[in-house]
């Protein structure tokens, strides 16, 4: 669902459209509550770490997953990712093969993550984790499965964009949430908040009270009865040796918030002479790419996009488009390492 501006108003200053849609939001919340109330029917022999969110749309789950993959590998643990494969046409269960599969088949995020570890796509998450277990996973990262009750989770992480927080605090379509904040946080083990220092301060000011309430995460074996732990981080461009200073670029992005990508380029000194905000996961058809290439040529600019968009590029355009990768940098790993130590006490 497309994000609406009135979703970003504060909970105490609700837009009239949000108020009008509140009854539908309550119905959505009830439907989610009914779904997550089901007890898990699949328990894997290895730990399952769920990386999800309360908001509909992008909050930084993919960079979080990449950061966790790298952290686990550094500890000598072999992670596999299980994804629904949003945007792909194959239902699975299957293992993503980067040289054989396309984003149209398995989705752009699984294809991107497959560069870091083994990834399995399955509409049925239970079948996906069973496949990962048979394939040799020592830990399974369940991508965007927080509201899916089928698989038992040993650790549930909620990722939030610090600037947007939880929006106006209402559920779809009145607000951006899949479930109410307190309900969702009660099932979470920790929160990762991503944003600049000023965004983090705003997030703590608006949502600190909700985070400080004791919760009992009764769907995990890691009980928590104190305030919800929070890890703070920021997206930083990966150093690739490219000097963006004064580089004339035609930037395009089909992610949840393209403006973040454009702002990152400008912060690096790039001269963004053209920009194109596409829909999240929008197919990059040859016709669309020819139009974008023509705009870039008219401005004598270099085309540049995100890592996630780059895996959707049609053949013949990979050499024409530069990629600006970003990585999640946490202020401290201590909160997450505490949970990993409990999941893997022997390592």
Set down the secondary structure blueprint.
Elements: H1 16-36, E1 48-52, H2 61-74, E2 79-83, E3 94-95, H3 103-106, H4 108-113, E4 118-121, H5 125-134, E5 139-143, E6 155-161, H6 181-185, E7 190-194, H7 197-212, E8 230-237, E9 248-253, H8 258-267, E10 271-277, H9 286-298, E11 302-305, H10 307-310, E12 321-323, E13 326-330, H11 334-343
Parallel strand pairs: 1-5, 1-6, 2-4, 2-5, 6-7, 7-8, 9-10, 9-11, 11-12
Antiparallel strand pairs: 3-4, 8-13
Tell me about this structure:
The chain has 347 residues and is an alpha/beta fold. The chain has two domains: 34-236 and 328-343, P-loop containing nucleotide triphosphate hydrolases (Rossmann fold); 248-324. The chain contains eleven helices and 13 strands. A nine-stranded mixed β-sheet has the order 3-4-2-5-1-6-7-8-13, sandwiched between helices. The longest helix has 21 residues, at 16-36. It is globular and about 55 Å long. The N and C termini lie far apart (42 Å). Residues 217-223 have low confidence and may be disordered.
Tally of structural domains:
2
Q: Please indicate the percent range of residues in DSSP E strands (runs of 2 or more).
A: 15-25%
Query: What portion of residues is helical?
Result: 25-40%
Instruction: Look at the helices and sheets and give the structural class.
Output: alpha/beta
Question: How many beta-strand segments?
Answer: 13
CATH superfamily label of the largest domain? P-loop containing nucleotide triphosphate hydrolases
CATH topology term of the largest domain:
Rossmann fold
CATH secondary-structure class of the largest domain: Alpha Beta
**How many distinct helices?**
11
Order of helices and strands: HEHEEHHEHEEHEHEEHEHEHEEH
Per CATH, which architecture of the largest domain? 3-Layer(aba) Sandwich
Query: How would you sum up the major sheet?
Result: 9 strands, mixed
Strand order of the largest sheet: 3-4-2-5-1-6-7-8-13
> Can you tell me the residue ranges where pLDDT is under 50 for at least 5 consecutive residues?
217-223
Distance between the termini: 42 Å
- Overall 3D shape: globular
Gyration radius, in Å: 20 Å
């Amino acid at each position: 669902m497309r994000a609406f501006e009135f979703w970003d108003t504060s909970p105490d200053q609700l837009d009239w459209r949000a108020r009008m849609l509140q009854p539908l939001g309550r119905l959505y919340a009830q439907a989610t509550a009914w779904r997550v109330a089901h007890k898990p029917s699949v328990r894997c022999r290895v730990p399952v770490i769920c990386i999800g969110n309360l908001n509909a749309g992008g909050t930084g789950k993919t960079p979080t997953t990449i950061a966790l993959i790298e952290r686990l590998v550094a500890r000598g643990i072999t992670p596999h990712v299980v994804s629904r494969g949003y945007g792909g046409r194959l239902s699975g269960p299957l293992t993503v093969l980067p040289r054989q599969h396309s984003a149209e088949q398995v989705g752009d995020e699984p294809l991107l993550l497959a560069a870091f570890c083994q990834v399995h796509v399955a509409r049925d998450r239970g079948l996906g984790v069973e496949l990962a277990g048979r394939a040799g996973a020592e830990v399974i990262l369940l991508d965007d499965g927080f509201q899916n009750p089928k698989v038992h989770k040993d650790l549930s992480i909620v990722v939030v964009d610090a600037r947007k927080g939880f929006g106006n605090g209402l559920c779809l379509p009145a607000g951006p949430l899949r479930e109410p904040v307190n309900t969702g946080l009660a099932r979470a083990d920790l929160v990762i908040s991503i944003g600049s220092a000023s965004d983090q301060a705003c997030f703590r000011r608006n949502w600190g009270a909700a985070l400080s309430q004791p919760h009992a995460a009764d769907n995990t074996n890691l009980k928590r009865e104190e305030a919800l732990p929070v890890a703070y981080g920021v997206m930083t461009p990966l150093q690739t040796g490219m000097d963006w200073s004064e580089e004339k670029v035609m930037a395009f992005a089909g992610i949840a918030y393209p403006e973040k990508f454009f702002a990152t380029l400008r912060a690096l000194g790039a001269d963004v002479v053209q920009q194109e905000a596409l829909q999240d996961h929008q197919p990059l058809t040859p016709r669309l790419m020819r139009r974008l290439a023509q705009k870039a040529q008219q401005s004598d600019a270099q085309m540049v996009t995100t890592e996630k968009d780059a895996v959707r590029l049609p053949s013949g355009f990979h050499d024409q488009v530069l990629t600006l990768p970003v990585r999640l940098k946490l202020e401290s790993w201590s909160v997450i390492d505490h949970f990993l130590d409990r999941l893997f006490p022997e390592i």
